[in-house]
Amino acid sequence: MTNRDNTTRTDTTTRTPTTTRSTTTRPRAARRYPNNEENMDAPLVPFIRQPGEDDEMTSIRRELAALRAQLNRIERTMQPTDTQ
Fold it and tell me: Where along the chain is composition biased (Low complexity) (predicted)?
């Protein structure tokens, strides 16, 4: 391995000034804001539930889990046992 002198490279390029575009060539599009009726029809933020509050989907999930457990118990009892 060769020993090199620790030299710093300097950048000799110069920056060219940037030109700004004229705003008259590209007019801004008018932004459309929703009115109050549209805001009431489609809220942007979901409703926040209270920590102890159960909603319908939670109840349905609990019922499905109970039915699944019951079905598993029934299937286990109906399986033939090979203890001969």
Answer: 1-27
pLDDT tens-digit readout, 21-72: 665 666 677 777 666 666 666 655 666 666 666 677 888 889 999 999 999 9
Helix H or strand E encompassing 77? helix 56-78
Question: What's the per-residue H, E or C state across 2-60?
Answer: CCCCCCCCCCCCCCCCCCCCCCCCCCCCCCCCCCHHHHHHCCCCCCCCCCCCCCHHHHH
Residues 55, 49 contacting (CB under 8 angstroms)? yes
Distance from chain centroid for Cα 36: 27
